[in-house]
Write a structure and sequence with these properties.
The complex is a heterodimer of chains A (about 140) and B (about 575). Chain A has helices at about 25-35, 50-60, 75-90, 105-115, 125-135, and strands at about 15-20, 40-45, 65-70, 95-100, 120. By secondary structure, chain A is of the alpha/beta class. In chain A, α1 links the parallel β1 and β2 (about 40-45). Chain B is of the alpha/beta class. The two termini of chain B are about 45 Å apart. Classes of the chains: A alpha/beta (about 140), B alpha/beta (about 575).
């Protein structure tokens, strides 16, 4: 499979990751499939990954987009660790970090300040998520 | 249910109605080309006696409290007493959850239900590196018997029935509850409650595990065997479709995979030489109730009928209690929206009503703010009041199987039974005639994941395309600031829990800890029932993580092989 699009842009590479102990993976699977159907290259981390394992995978796979799915409420601890890890490997600046799951309004600002590009809560449409990635992935 | 002559007349009349009355109307068209349930199951415009022509009243429906239990598990249903209103609760430390328990008991709740935090659910201690950020979130943290003592402080466990929503580490929690009964001087035979302990659905849907499927099943069967001998009023496993549905399955898949799991446990117990009528009465079920009210009612009725017939025909059950499917229901968490959260109260009401009309034995109604965060006290109260209004004001509790005999409900019940059985037969085929082996084979082959993922992806596509309307999400939207009163977990929860764990570890007798862990290891080696050794260990304040590590050393940690389709 060619990784070049006709417009010369590289196919968008995404890592869809489940962090922490939370096993709710319906959203992660749905979005992984939607990304794939949209023509992105998708890697799925599997369940129960530590933040460092996700950082390693993102760096090694040289992804453009890292979608972190978390529904356990531990986003305030785990997402900062992932972002710190990406920075440590100099990978933060060219990775679009998205969070999917249940994030209370009060916690959103904090995640945006850390550098999360967008948070997709329950009820987000697959198309909106895909459009967001298309518009922003190569800006990074 | 009708003789040929009546049916012929009904058919002739229907044909006349179609041409004279219906067709002129259809020129205006209908709202949609196709009307389907939330599970994408097509429903007809109208159901008539023709749809139930093949139904044999005595054989297919019968009377409530008798096989095949289509019309209800018990003869008087809610006229005797209403279902158990069981709200799931648990957050932070044991002290905080204990406080919520006392609050719920004071509000009139008749059964307790415990939610554990992720580390406890995964069988690791609060001081494990993977526990960081998760201690006391989504549920209560339990590391040792000390936490359980605090959790039930001031509660006489002979007076209450408690449900424990926990799986890979369920045997440890069960052992702690028995240890607590021993401490309180309560006869083990009087201990009442339910352990979720359904490992098969973990591998299929919820994804909480420690060791691989086959040895996980062994431990479940140990707990069933132990319950039969020691705690006959305690349900050692709650065979769960809830999580299968939440993972995105259809109603038919939910019922089919759950019943298949149930038959797998039955076969495993039979293989141990246990008598079906001794253990089957202890098995109970846990289903989801979603928005399509008629589909849900039919699912509950069809499931009862299948369980009764299969237990009789395949496994030789004779006791009524072995064939009587009893179940808990929770309204569909996945159906709740973060947008316009008060609308969720209405969704929960519809789902709860379906569960009641479907004959549930107990019910948890979700709180309207759950798509945003952990439920607040006000939201929990409204959820409980929803059940009380259905029970006390609506009249739904006054007639047994009120939807029975509806042409639509009976037809849908039949259709679901046929489709559920087709799945069960397919699974049985995958195990060369054994449902248990079919389930154990289907897990690593990704069979269940594929089936569920296909259904959930299809659903999401229908929502995105606007074919499936979700009020407040893809239609009837408003610009809003969501600012509900949301429960926040005190960030110091983890520190307090870690302090207690450390203190407990310092105070316990290390020789006893070593000895009980060694005894557990030997019991596993010798293929003995592990429950007595786990009880000894928890009484010595061995931690949950230490106990689960013994199993992991023997069987290795499970890694999921299937990835998204």
């Amino acid at each position: 499979m060619s990784t070049e699009h006709t417009d010369g842009q590289r196919t968008i590479r995404c890592l869809v990751a489940k962090v922490g102990l939370d096993g709710h993976d319906r959203g992660a699977h749905v979005i992984a499939r939607a990304f794939r159907d949209a023509g992105f290259e998708v890697i799925y981390s599997g369940l129960h990954q530590a933040p460092d394992q996700i950082v390693q995978a993102a760096v090694q796979e040289d992804v453009d987009v890292l979608g972190v799915s978390i529904l356990s409420g531990a986003h305030d601890t785990l997402v900062p660790k992932i972002i710190d890890g990406l920075k440590k490997y100099d990978a933060f600046d060219d990775t679009l970090v998205l969070v999917g799951g249940i994030v209370p309004d009060d916690d959103r600002e904090e995640l945006y300040e850390l550098g999360v590009a967008e948070i997709f809560g329950p009820g987000s449409s697959m198309q909106d998520t895909i459009d967001f990635v298309r518009e922003n992935a190569h800006q990074r | 249910m009708f003789d040929e002559e009546d049916l012929a007349e009904i058919r002739a009349e229907r044909e006349r109605w179609e041409s004279e009355t219906l067709e002129p109307f259809l020129e205006k068209g209908e709202r949609k080309d196709e009307f389907v349930t939330v599970s994408n199951h097509e429903v007809d415009r109208l159901y008539t006696p023709e749809d139930v022509a093949d139904l044999d009243y005595d054989e297919d429906l019968g009377y409530p409290g008798e096989p095949p239990y289509t019309r209800g598990a018990y003869p008087t249903m809610y006229r005797g007493r209403t279902w158990t209103m069981r709200q799931f609760a648990g957050f932070g430390t044991a002290e905080e959850t204990n406080e919520r328990f006392h609050y719920l008991i004071d509000e009139g709740q008749t059964g307790l239900s415990t939610a554990f935090d992720m580390p406890s659910l995964m069988g690791i201690d609060s001081d494990h590196p993977m526990s960081e950020g998760e201690v006391g979130k989504e549920g209560v943290a339990v590391d040792t018997l000390r936490d359980m003592e605090i959790l039930f402080d001031g509660i006489d466990i002979s007076e209450i029935s408690t449900s424990f929503t926990i799986n890979p580490s369920a045997a440890v929690i069960y052992a702690m509850y028995i240890a607590l009964a021993d401490q309180q001087g309560v006869d083990r035979k009087e201990v009442r409650g339910t352990l979720q302990n359904d490992m098969l659905k973990e591998f299929i849907a919820q994804k909480e595990w420690v060791i691989p499927p086959a040895p996980s099943l062994d431990i479940v069967t140990d707990t069933i065997e132990f319950a039969v001998e020691e705690t006959p009023k305690f349900h050692p496993v709650s065979i769960s479709g809830y999580h299968i549905r939440e993972a995105g399955s259809t109603a038919i898949q939910e019922a089919a995979f759950t019943l298949a799991d149930g038959f797998a446990y039955v076969e495993d117990c039979l293989d141990r030489g246990m008598a079906v009528d001794e253990f089957a009465p202890l098995l109970s079920f846990f289903f989801n109730s979603h928005n399509s009210i008629f589909e849900e009612i039919s699912k509950f009725r069809a499931s009862r009928r299948i369980w009764a017939n299969v237990m009789d025909e395949w496994y030789g059950a004779e006791a009524a209690e072995s064939k009587r499917l009893k179940f808990h229901t929770q309204t569909a968490g996945q159906s709740l929206t973060a947008q316009q959260p008060l609308n969720n109260i209405v969704r929960v009401t519809i789902q709860a009503l379906a569960a009641v009309m479907g004959g549930t034995q107990s019910l948890h109604t979700n709180s309207y703010d759950e798509a945003l965060a952990l439920p607040s006290e006000d939201a929990v109260r409204v959820a409980l009041r929803t059940q009380q209004i259905i029970g006390e004001e609506s009249g739904a509790a006054d007639i047994v199987d009120p939807m029975g005999g509806s042409f639509a409900i009976e037809k849908l019940t039949d259709e679901m039974e046929t489709e559920i059985m087709a799945y069960i037969e397919e699974i049985k085929e995958m195990g060369d005639g054994s449902v248990r082996d079919g389930v154990l084979n289907g897990i690593p082959q990704g069979y269940f994941h594929r089936e569920i993922q296909d259904a959930s992806y299809e659903y999401q596509k229908r929502v995105d395309a606007g074919k499936e309307v979700v009020v407040g999400v893809n239609e009837y939207t408003i610009d809003e600031e969501t600012d509900p009163d949301i429960l926040k977990i005190d960030p110091e929860t983890r520190d307090r829990q870690l302090n207690r764990l450390e203190r407990t570890k310092n105070e316990r007798d290390d020789t006893e800890v070593e000895a009980t862990l060694e005894a557990l290891s030997e019991a596993i080696d010798d293929g003995e029932n592990v429950m007595p050794s786990i009880i000894d260990a928890v009484k010595a304040y061995v931690t949950m993580g230490e106990i689960m590590e013994v199993f992991e050393e023997h069987y290795g940690a499970y890694q999921e092989t299937a990835s998204p389709a």
